[in-house]
Amino acid sequence: MVLDKEESVSVVSLQSREKPRGCAGCNGKIRDRFMLQALDRFWHEDCLKCACCDCRLGRVGSTLYTRANLILCRRDYLRLFGVTGNCAACSKLIPAFEMVMRARDNVYHLDCFACHLCRQRFCVGDKFFLKNNMILCQLDYEGGHLNGSTERLQQ
């Protein structure tokens, strides 16, 4: 297996005239109507699982990760091998698997991504201003006459 690889999982229909394929997980024949294809191999739906949490990767999503001969779900891959960092607002640790907001080079917890003055939280597409690593809403930016760079959250 390749180290640090993101791979897609696809559901493949087994045609009635096709010879059953071997499962990469259990080595048994796949006689089900549908099978999963990932890592250039075929799998029973129950056999393609995360090596850490045992979740079925065909149901969790369409992506799996491989590293150090492990097949992992996204959460476990990030938990084991992801990069952690600190929130630009509260300076507390952000686990690698946690969803974050970004503004330029800064990374924030979702709860910390709010106006520094009034604590208004932002949604995707909302306009905010960034001044000296301080996030401001439009009202506080215009009311305080601060000079900053305008940013827009990307979807």
Automatic annotation (TrEMBL):
Residue span(s) of domain LIM zinc-binding: 21-83, 85-147
GO cellular component annotations of the record: nucleus
Highest taxon of the lineage: Eukaryota
Biological process according to GO: positive regulation of transcription by RNA polymerase II
Cited SUPFAM superfamilies: Glucocorticoid receptor-like (DNA-binding domain)
Keywords of this entry: LIM domain, Metal-binding, Repeat, Zinc
Gene Ontology MF term list: DNA-binding transcription factor binding; metal ion binding; transcription coactivator activity
The keyword Magnesium is annotated on this UniProt entry: no
InterPro entries: LMO_RBTN_TF (IPR050945), Znf_LIM (IPR001781)
Chaperone listed as a keyword: no
Pfam families in the record: LIM (PF00412)
Name by which UniProt lists this protein: Rhombotin-1
Organism: Austrofundulus limnaeus (Annual killifish)
Gene field: LOC106531068
